Amino acid sequence: MVTTIYRxxxxxxxDDAGTPGAPGARAEAFAVSAGRFTHVGGLEQVREQARAGVxxxxxxxxxxxxxxRFVGPGIIDSHTHLTTFGEAVxxxxxxDCRTLEEIRQRLLAAHRADPRTPRILGAGWLFDAVGDEHxxxxxxxxxxxxxxxxxxxxxxxxxxxxTAALEEMGIDAHSPDPVGGRIARDAEGRATGMLYxxxxxxxxxxxxxxxxxxxxxxxxxxxxxxxxxxxGVTTVTDMxxxxxxxxxxxxxxxxxxxxxxxxxxxxxxxPGEDTAAxxxxxxxxxxxxxxxxxxxxxxxxxxxxxxxxxDGVIDACTATMRAPYADGTNCDPIWTAERLRPVAHAADExxxxxxxxxxxxxxxxIALDLLEDCAMRRHPRRHRVEHLETVTEETIGRMxxxxxxxxxxxxxxxxxxxxxxxxxxxxxRSEEGFPxxxxxxxxxxxxxxxxxxxxxxxxxxxxxxxxxxxxxxxPELPPYHPERAFTPEEALTALTAGGxxxxxxxxxxxxxxxxxEANFLVLDADPRREAPEALLSTQVHSTYVxxxxxxxx
Length: 553
What we know:
Elements: E1 2-12, E2 26-27, E3 29-33, E4 36-41, H1 43-55, E5 60-73, E6 75-80, H2 82-89, E7 92-93, H3 100-113, E8 120-125, H4 127-130, H5 137-141, E9 149-153, E10 158-161, H6 163-169, E11 181-185, E12 191-197, H7 198-210, H8 214-230, E13 233-241, H9 243-256, E14 263-268, H10 275-293, E15 301-309, H11 337-349, E16 353-358, H12 361-376, E17 384-387, H13 393-402, E18 405-408, H14 419-425, H15 436-441, E19 446-448, H16 459-468, H17 488-495, H18 497-502, E20 520-523, E21 540-545, E22 548-552
Parallel strand pairs: 1-5, 6-13, 7-8, 8-9, 13-14, 14-15, 15-16, 16-17, 17-18, 18-19
Antiparallel strand pairs: 1-2, 1-3, 3-4, 5-20, 9-10, 10-12, 11-12, 20-21, 21-22
Helix pairs in contact: 2-8, 8-9, 10-11, 11-12, 12-13
């Protein structure tokens, strides 16, 4: 067996003797054998220990000079959607479109490039690009009246379609709104082209999934894995897996004997016909979790828990707020406390980790009420709340007391995409979002992710926003409250050890520490020492998963 010593690098270990969220320590070198870190510390110390460890067996010790580069634990993207992200790579990209006409011209160009395609799929459009009007099918019909068009909003909580798509899905004036969703309609009840929240998932996405082959699903995963490895990511937590996603993961393991890197999953569950159906959904997730745990996928894939999408997003005014939006409207939660309580209790009783999507400040209050109920049942779970774009100081204090993890995404407050977010709030709340410092000061465990494909998946631009509050998309824009930003050590720890803690896998990965999986990345720039702007032009030099180089620039 070969032991490899990595030296001549500036090493950030994120090791802090087990305290979540604390800045990590530094070392001069580390050794790797059989896919795990074996020794970490001073170079001569690591050499002596490594050689002593292999002397009896006659094994080989190699050394790798990393050229003075920065080395840190592999990034853990704590909130992503793997197959959706991989699928989005092949869609028409609309995030940088600033006007309706730009969106239409890009869709038209895609159709001209492949006129035989049965439908046009787009992703990433922003509400403020459409202007003051609500998006409608008629806007898309003007350029593409005959081919169905499906456009995922940047936040993935709405789908904008044209008339051909409405007809293809069979949506008409008699189509019901699902629980937690809405079909936009005119005064006569006719669908006008927007599918909000669960309506987008249950009509558009379910329709598209039915015409997607298992081979397509595997290809989407391959695209996502490749993109993530290039970004220095060595583990992800998928935050809305369904059975088709799980089948694709299992097919990939059966074909290749493993995955490019480990995956932890939270299965999505939406309100069913009644509470009995919801509880049956929990039972199905538990059965699948147990099946995976004893199957050939167990070394690479784990179902950790369940995901509840409790509200929508601020941009579409579908997040549930304590006070109305600027236009006087508000929105009920997708899951009411009464409906969710027995389901959350069942998940908690079954040992599932609960993750709650809560963006509105009222929604996070409801989430904490429910998690407090679970805590009173004395189960030592490590539950989490996702996003927390608006949240009160009192709620943050409750999170600290209950040991609830804050899962946040710096890329969601890139100033380039915040104009509409601020406008729909319209008051002091527009300057009180993304309270990272308040969360840190309260002692809440933090993990940082991207929520790809609702935002760019690249780890270094995400880190740049965490360090500055500035825009990775348009760096010339003024930052959004830079006084709330992270220090480099805080952000790097939240992206690595914090992700391991949140995913209940700190015993396996997240730090450069003896005994843990040898997952690490190598960068030309040291985020702790160089100006944050350097991250916008820095590429990942190499990415290692369990000691194997999976990417090299």
